[in-house]
Amino acid sequence: MSSNKGEARQYGVTGLLITVIGIGFALYHLYVTYTGSIEPLMFRSTHLGVAFVLAFLVLSERQKSRGQRMATYVMAIASAAVLFYIYVNYQRFVMHIPYLDQPKTMDILMGIVLIALILELSRRLIGWLLPAVALVFLLYSILGPYMPGALRHPGFSVSAIVDNLFMTVEGIFGLPIATSSTYIVLFVIFGSVLAATGAGEFFTDFACALAGRSRGGPAKVAVVSSALFGSINGSAAANVMATGTFTIPLMKRLGFSPTFAGAVEAAASSGGAFLPPIMGSAAFIMAEMLGIPYLAVAKASILPALLYYFGVYVAIDLEAARAGLKGMNKEDLPPWKGILLRSYYVLPLVLLIWMMLRGYSPSYAAFWAILSTIGISFVSPKRRISLAGLAKTLENGARSAIHIVAACAAAGIIVGTISLTGLGGKFSAFIISLSGGYVTLSLVFAAAIAIVLGMGMTISPTYILTAVIAAPVLVSLGVTPIAAHLFVLYFACLAPITPPVALAAYAAAGLAGSDFNRTGWTAARLGLVGFVIPFIFVFNNALMLSGNTVDVLLAIPTSLCGTAAVSVAASGWLGRSLRVWKRVMTLIGGLLLIQPGIVTDAIGIALLAIAIGHEVLNTLRGSLYRSSHQWRRDVGTL
Question: If you placed Cys at 207, which of 25, 166, 225, 610 could pair as Cys (CB 3.0 to 4.6 Å)?
Fold first, then answer.
């Protein structure tokens, strides 16, 4: 009995620490965003150290064994010790000259401890692949003299590695953690506040009212709601779990198969990370890597993202037509009046976009969007955030952020070792050699790298690693930097629906009770246009709303028509099943229409006219035959 009381008391203390640290973590980032008065290394180290303490405490709550809990507590204490060590030696760290000032023994020890903590925490929170890759890169930096051929390098001592990763802002405290601390945490907190105020229900109701009555309504609701949610949280699997619990049962009830219902949710959820205005955490990292405003990234992404969702939407409509499905009953839909009365939930997003358009930083815009969301919660007595509710919301935001911090820290190790060893240049030379210098082949290799890494990593580390390895190759071959990085980002986002390992499809299949592999392949078919568009905007930047205004204006309608054609080809249905040759012609015609240009548009239109025109003639011929046959029968009965 006393043992149980002791454990309960232990959990109570841990829970209290989690609450206090979580709230403090959120408030600290809000304060720094508002004041902006802190040195980068201090801010980043505090961000990482406090997040790690919080993460290990959260993990300790999930462990049943006392020994495991104690080991996790030790890791939390070690995280705090590393942070304290940086604070005490802060001036020396700031004045430290890399590779000239020799690290002290305690510096090396603390650096090793932090690296070990990063590998362990990322393993527990994200999976084995990311820390395994980080460990391989660490070993490579040590074992350089023993590597074969072009991979050989002089090798670096443990002291030099720790110097690079721990005592500078080039490794662990480099760009990934800088982006995580400056931007990502604020948007995670924003998403948590939106959820607490009922904005999630508003977006779902809005999607139902907008698309629910149309053919295959619940599936289209999934597309709209997942786009809205995904644009805020930027995680495909999290998006599936947030919206799929509502949309998947609804789709199944209306007549969609479990496989198709799960595939729709997975495909719809995977596009959120490249849909403006918020996109996902990787988009902020991309802006930092390129040294351009976030709005430039959002502008370049908006048309490809809309084309992706339009393609999924058309594919769903065709599947619903094939199955003879109808929309939701009017009485099951939320009334527009109630939705309009709650339209104030849009105001924080409007404020966010307006502030970024006015030139404010995304983090500062997110700060005021958070405050405005809290303010508008007082409009509805049922959704009014109390002080206790606000505290819980901030804690939830901090809990959600720890996964991203761990991923960015591990990515920092990889980026730092690539910089230290010069491996990035060797990767570039290898890809160019393998592709023969052909841009298209290099793009295929870059896409393959992103998809393979995305099998075991979340979007942000997948993007960072692929961008470091492959984007410089594409740029050296003449691809514009923003197109190269956006290409990598898109395939990092599409990895969760790409078989054989499709994490978003796996989550959706669990909710739908469907076969994982079939759900994954169906999701990939629904999102087929998403695998094509990146190859096109690399060669013609009009799809990124860049270049000649006339070209951009022409690209919008033709690419929409092309996207619809690709969806028709993928589904194989246009009033009835299409023959293979018609599907092939429709696919080629659609791809040519998506590719901006007068010649490609003309050829694409001609191919579609042949394929679809032939189908229309066959349909009319069949209709006339049935009418005449019926007329003869009627005459015969007279």
Answer: 225
Residue 435 identity (one-letter amino acid): S
Number of folded domains that form the chain = 1
Q: How many CB atoms lie within 10 A of CB 39?
A: 10
**Residue 343 in 3-state DSSP?**
helix
pLDDT value at position 6? 45
Q: Which residues of 185-215 are buried (b: 16+ CB within 10 A; e: fewer)?
A: bbbbbbbbbbbbbbbbebbbbbbbbbbbbbb
Confidence of residue 621 (pLDDT cuts 50, 70, 90): low
* Surface-to-core class of residue 403, CB atoms within 10 Å of its CB (0-12 exposed, 13-18 middle, 19+ buried): buried
Quote the CA–CA distance of 148 and 332 in Å, as a whole number: 66
3-state secondary structure of 193: helix
What are the residues whose beta carbons fall under 8 Å from the beta carbon of 273, sequence distance 6 or more? 230, 234, 235, 236, 279, 280, 282, 283, 459, 489, 492, 493
Structure tokens of 494? 């599409």
Positive or negative, the CA dihedral 11, 12, 13, 18 is: positive
Question: Which residues, at least 6 apart from 191, have a Cβ–Cβ distance to it below 8 Å?
Answer: 232, 233, 397, 400
pLDDT tens track for 336-359: 888 898 899 999 989 998 999 898
Residue 288 lies in a domain: no
Beta bridge partners of 577: 573
The count of other CB atoms within 10 Å of the CB of residue 105 is 8
- Tokens 């991309």, residue located: 286
Residue 172 lies in a domain: no
Of the candidates 234, 361, 401, the one whose C-alpha atom is nearest the C-alpha of residue 301 is: 234
Domain of residue 607, residue span: 548-638
DSSP 515-544: -HHHHHHHHHHHTHHHHHHHHHHHH-GGGG
Measure the CA–CA gap between 534 and 513, rounded to whole angstroms.
32
Does 529 reside within a domain?
Answer: no
Give a yes or no: residue 70 inside a domain: no
In angstroms, rounded to a whole number, what is the distance separating the alpha carbons of residues 279 and 265?
A: 18
Print the SS3 string covering 53-105: HHHHHHHHHCCCCHHHHHHHHHHHHHHHHHHHHHHHCHHHHHHCCCCCCCCCH
d(CA 86, CA 89): 5
Specify which residues 573 forms β-bridges with: 577
Q: Which DSSP category does 577 fall into?
A: B
Cα–Cα distance measured from residue 165 to residue 186, given in angstroms and rounded to the nearest whole number: 25
Q: Where do we find the tokens 């339209």?
A: 343
Closest among 283, 235, 19, 44 to 125, alpha carbons compared = 235
Contacts of 37 (CB under 8 A, 6+ apart): none
| Distance from C-alpha of 477 to C-alpha of 471, rounded to nearest angstrom | 10
- Provide the 3-class DSSP secondary structure of residue 422: coil
The per-residue pLDDT for range 268-290, each reduced to its tens digit, is 888 888 888 878 788 889 999 99
